[in-house]
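Lab channel / #folding
Pinned by the channel admin:
"Please post every new chain as: sequence first, then the structure tokens as a reply. Keep commentary short and put observations after the output so the thread stays searchable."

First post following the new format, from NK:
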Amino acid sequence: MDTKSVRSSRSTGQVCRDLIRISRFDQYNSCLALFAGGELDRLVYLNNTGSDYSLVWSVLLSASLRIKESNDIELRFILVRMAFCCLAAYIYSGAGMVWNDWVDRDIDAKVARTKNRPLPAGRLYTGEAMAWMVLQAAIATCMLHFMMDGQHV
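Reply from TO:
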């Protein structure tokens, strides 16, 4: 079946599944963004950059410094901010996966392991993938804006 017939016979549900698939939300990859750094970073990515703390730990350390400055900070405040930060990192990671697939789409089409991904297989238009990536980045940015109470740092 050629690319045009694949695209013309797709349903909205198939497009949505492919958008989830292209972001790797159906796999574990995006979850690693939450705890990347330190030993996990070295084990998974063989990275020895000296980055010894993850996103989650960064949020907790920042919160503990704020508690030290002011005793009126509630645990709920910290946990809500951490949840928004983790969710934003997860969504940003998905956007990064879309970018990677877009950049590698021609290469992926020639490799047996990756030729059935949504872009090389022709199940998604590149414009759809880019719009999905921008939407994810916008949502994650809005979450971080809320998390920071609109402050710019």
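NK: Residues 36 and 105 are 26 Å apart (CA to CA).
TO: also worth noting, Residues 38-53 have pLDDT under 50 and may be disordered.
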